[in-house]
Design goal:
The protein has helices at 2-10, 33-46, 51-57, 67-76, 143-146, 168-176, 239-252, 269-279, 332-342, 428-438, 444-447; strands at residues 86-87, 93-94, 98-102, 111-112, 115-125, 130-138, 154-158, 161-162, 182-189, 195-202, 204-205, 211-217, 225-231, 254-260, 288-294, 304-308, 321-324, 347-351, 359-368, 371-376, 378-384, 399-400, 455-459, 467-470. Strands 3, 15, 16, 19, 20, 21 and 24 form a 7-stranded mixed sheet that branches. Strands 5, 6, 7, 8, 9, 10 and 23 form a 7-stranded antiparallel sheet that branches. It has a 6-stranded mixed sheet with strand order 12-13-14-17-18-22, with helices on both faces. With 471 residues, the protein is an alpha+beta fold. Strand 17, helix 9 (332-342) and strand 18 (347-351) form a beta-alpha-beta unit.
């Protein structure tokens, strides 16, 4: 749910309008904006990682704006906070820091279609400029799954309308944010020779879990069972579900684990620590996975905090870890990789250079009037046990799937989905990870995988979550 709610936040572009003058008085603001803006200001001045510049430049912040526009505007007035955010494909600045209004619902109560879309929009018809959405994942038990939709399917029409430059943003948001009451979808399945299907979906309840897929793989000629887990965000509400899968792997006696983080933009730091603790042997007990450093003038929390592994060896006793990653892997995902490497635990990366997000947020909730707000400004930088934290440009993979590699396969549009989770023959990342573990050669069908028939139209702003610590 968080990844869907962040979408609208990250589409907001920094406000660059000049202040209103006495000749053009600002429009009336909704009641309560001043209190929310004061809340934003207080944490920026007392806890933001670049709070020193906030104190120097706060006179340039336009407090006549509505609360939802104020934070990106204020951050855009700073010059030293480059690590808080990114530039999208159109060159527009987005920020990791966010504030949003939250409701009382939980992820377990999601009502919608159950479709997660990849953020790359592809061209289906270059002559008529018609677009397509690629399905990243379909949630178990959702209306989309029950209708037969699968990861890798390409949506070509929504409500009998082709997707084009005039409507794709609204259609995309309507599907991923479940804002439509029902939707008619026409889609193609490339693995079936672009077979066309049409379904009509109505909203239904489903379990929007970040533990989207798990399997135990046994390969002929290899004597160890291999666990495979697709994990899409570090969410503390689902820690037990995550542990249940890992315990199932332990009961089955797996000797290797492929942790698929290619769609994981980060999340709760404590969940990352819990995951790593469950993977490594007992000898790593109480060792520091990572430390975080805040501004020395932070008025609320200590400058340095350390996070140690605990209850190691109680679940799995792996000798190494294989991680599938991509440019969408960020934040807590990168802490898992660099934190374990900082303890000299072998981590092998298959995929693409990661996002490069080595900063995080202390998250607070506050009720103002009748509404509840979640506020997460960037407040700290992350380091592993060796004191290394310089992965702001991303972590390079050991096997890069976007270019020619020792396995003789590449996909210039990786991680654009091609097939279902767990497809050992047609998912290039999983196939290479298995070959890398076992030393076996890739099958002919894997070598034949190609996205050469795909043309990219544009890319939607994708949510990249910070490493989060909750108050």
């Amino acid at each position: 749910m968080r990844r869907l709610l962040f979408l609208l936040l990250l589409l907001v572009v920094s406000c660059t309008n000049p202040y209103s003058s006495i000749d053009t008085p600002p429009a009336p603001r909704p009641k309560g904006d001043s209190e929310v803006i004061s809340y934003i200001d207080k944490r920026l001045e007392e806890e933001y990682y670049w709070l020193d510049e906030v104190l120097e430049r706060r006179a340039y912040f336009d407090r006549s704006l509505s609360w939802d526009k104020y934070l990106p505007h204020a951050l855009s007035r700073l010059r030293t906070n480059d690590d808080d955010g990114y530039f999208n494909s159109q060159g527009q600045r987005g920020y990791y820091s966010y504030i949003r209004e939250i409701g009382s619902t939980t992820r377990a109560e999601v009502m919608g279609f159950g479709i997660a879309l990849h953020y790359t929009i592809i061209v289906m018809d270059s002559e008529n400029r018609r677009y397509g959405f690629v399905i990243e994942s379909v949630y178990p038990g959702s209306p989309a799954e029950m209708a037969g939709m699968q990861r890798g399917d390409i949506i070509t029409m929504v409500d009998s309308r082709y997707l084009d430059s005039s409507n794709y943003v609204a259609m995309f948001n309507g599907i991923v944010a479940n804002s439509l009451s029902s939707v008619k979808i026409e889609y193609l399945r490339r693995s079936e020779g672009k077979t066309s299907h049409t379904v009509t979906l109505s909203k239904g309840a489903y379990h929007e879990t970040p533990v989207v897929y798990s399997d135990i793989i046994e390969l002929e000629g290899y004597d160890k069972k291999i666990g495979y887990l697709v994990y899409t965000s570090f969410e503390s509400e689902y820690d037990q579900e995550l542990m249940d899968v890992l315990q199932g792997f332990a009961t089955a006696g797996i000797g290797e684990l492929i942790l698929d983080l290619r769609c994981n933009g980060g999340g709760a730091l404590y969940s990352a620590v819990k995951l790593c603790s469950a993977l490594v042997p007992r000898g790593y007990e109480s060792q520091t996975l990572c430390s975080i450093k805040r501004n020395k003038n932070n008025k609320k929390l200590p400058e340095v905090s350390e996070f140690a592994l605990s209850d190691t060896g109680a679940v799995l006793n792996l000798e190494r870890l294989t991680v599938i990653c991509s440019g969408n892997s960020a934040s807590a995902s990168e802490i898992v990789i660099m934190g374990l490497r900082g303890l000299d635990f072998p981590v092998r990366l298959i995929g693409q250079t990661t996002e490069g997000k080595n900063c995080g947020m202390d998250v607070t909730h506050k009720r103002i009037g009748s509404k509840e707000y979640e506020y997460a400004p960037i407040t700290f930088m992350c380091f592993n046990a060796k004191g290394f934290g310089d992965w702001g440009e991303g972590i390079a993979p050991d096997v890069d799937l976007t270019t020619e590699n020792e396995y003789g396969v590449s996909d210039g549009y990786y991680p654009l989905p091609y097939t279902q989770w767990g497809d050992k023959n047609h998912d290039i990342a999983l196939a290479v990870a298995l070959a890398d573990i076992t030393g076996a050669k890739l099958s002919t069908s894997t070598r034949a995988i190609s996205n050469e028939d795909i043309t990219i139209a544009t890319t939607m702003a994708r949510p990249v979550m910070g490493t989060r610590l909750y108050e």
